[in-house]
Amino acid sequence: MNKTEKFIIIKKHTLFLWIILVSLMQQYTNCINPSSHAMYSTYAQYYDRFYTIKKYDLETVYIHELLSKHGALTILDLGCGTGTHLAGLEQFGYTCVGVDINQEMLELAQSKVKSRVVQANMHNFDLNEKFDAIISMFAVFNHNLTDEDALATLQNIKRHLNKNGMLILDLYNPQSSGEKTECYGDIMRTMKWELDRSTNICLSNVSFTSSNLTHDSLFPLKIYSMEYIEKLLKQCGYTYIHFYDNYTLKPGTPSSKNLIVIAYN
Q: Quick one: pLDDT at residue 32?
């Protein structure tokens, strides 16, 4: 084999690897941009049914306790989904706005709430107003897969906060790979997750099955340690950063299943 033939083979292999890499990046983009992925249109219809097991009422009370201590009145829910947290916060008298990238989710949210809801990306939404507090629950922030995206989101949030405004993040924080199956009435939920500690990317597969439908979704999440999210927050100028354990007032730890992060503008 001469040098020219070897060069052609190497070029072909390089092109093949680039095609694979671009394909993987497109899959990741589809996962963090639900509006570009057809399956989310179907998923939105059944989202609330699948998550009847989620304790939104207790979570909303917890959020209200944090907000009321801060004296917040105006709230932005970033990644509001179908608006269940928004609806609860409205009941407590807050003036709210919801932002989500998924139009189908927002249509369901609008049927529940009086609040304005806006379709936008968390990296670059622009509402031309500021809020006393911004919340981002249910691992929404974990969809920022790169430092660039995480910093863009944190900076954009900061731009929408009033002076001394409060940020509340709910971060998913698994410590290892795993699998579990739970049944709630006629709905069975199977969760499998593979955590790659070299990248801190957790690839999650969630399957819902009921008597008349099945839904399966695969998506990556970035896992942020306490030290790392604190570093990013400080880099963006946030202060008075606190960590709580899984919707309690107990101090958060590196092994907390969910980390509630509080920071101030």
A: 47
Rounded to the nearest 5°, which phi and psi values hold at 98? -115, 140
* Percent of the chain scoring above 90 in pLDDT: 69
CB-count exposure of residue 209 (10 Å: 0-12, 13-18, 19+):
middle
User: Would strands 214-222 and 201-209 be described as parallel, antiparallel, or unpaired?
Assistant: antiparallel
Q: How far apart are the first and last CA of the chain?
A: 64
For the ranges 101-105, 198-202, 204-208, the lowest mean pLDDT is seen at 204-208
Query: What are the helix (H) ranges across the chain?
Result: 3-32, 39-50, 56-70, 84-91, 103-112, 147-159, 226-235
Instruction: Please state the φ and ψ torsions of residue 128, each to the nearest 5 degrees.
Output: 60, 35
Contact 261, 253 (CB under 8 A): no
Question: What is the spatial distance between Cα 53 and Cα 61, in angstroms, rounded to a whole number?
Answer: 16
Map out the domains of the chain as residue ranges: 3-32, 46-174+221-264
Alpha carbon 12 to chain centroid, angstroms: 38
Instruction: Name which CATH class applies to 46-174+221-264.
Output: alpha beta
The 3-state DSSP class for residue 98 equals strand
